[in-house]
UniProtKB/TrEMBL annotation:
The gene is ychJ. Residues 31-129 form the YchJ-like middle NTF2-like domain. Coiled coil: none annotated. It comes from the Bacteria. InterPro entries: NTF2-like_dom_sf, YchJ-like_M. Gene3D superfamilies: 3.10.450.50. It comes from Aliivibrio sifiae. This is Preprotein translocase subunit SecA.
Length: 132
């Protein structure tokens, strides 16, 4: 398999068996980490509607479409998942810490975030994150 076919999320799997099926069916992201990885890949692939659809409904992401569109314009380079776990009090809440590297105006930057996810109706959703 050529590197060009690797999924952007960093698993070294082919995109067609990693994030692409999730991009086509959000319900296949059966853990917060899988959803987070698929959202990162969606930024790389510029799948704006998928990113909006995977925000928790309480976030009203459609209202922030312009800002989300700007975020996908960045040159996303690499994702590293630091930790991923479910809440001790609920199987419907999970957290993922990650580092995402991107290039903007020729400069490399790193986004470090501790993200919160909620599961509703068999689907995980991104709720919010704390930038570290």
């Amino acid at each position: 398999m050529s590197k060009a076919n690797h999924c952007p999320c960093g698993t070294k799997k082919n995109y067609s068996v990693c994030c692409e099926p999730i991009h086509n069916n959000h319900e296949l992201a059966i853990t917060p980490e899988l959803l987070m990885r698929s959202r990162y890949s969606a930024h790389v692939k510029q799948l704006i509607q998928y990113i909006i659809d995977t925000y928790h409904p309480s976030c009203h992401a459609e209202e922030f479409r312009d800002g989300i569109e700007e975020s996908i314009e960045l040159d996303w380079r690499k994702l590293k998942v630091v930790s991923s776990y479910l809440s001790e009090t609920s199987d419907n809440e999970g957290f993922v810490s990650f580092k995402a590297t991107y290039s903007e105006n020729g400069q490399l930057h790193q986004l470090k975030e501790h993200s919160r996810f909620l599961k509703e109706n068999r689907k995980w959703y991104y709720v919010n994150g704390e930038i570290e």
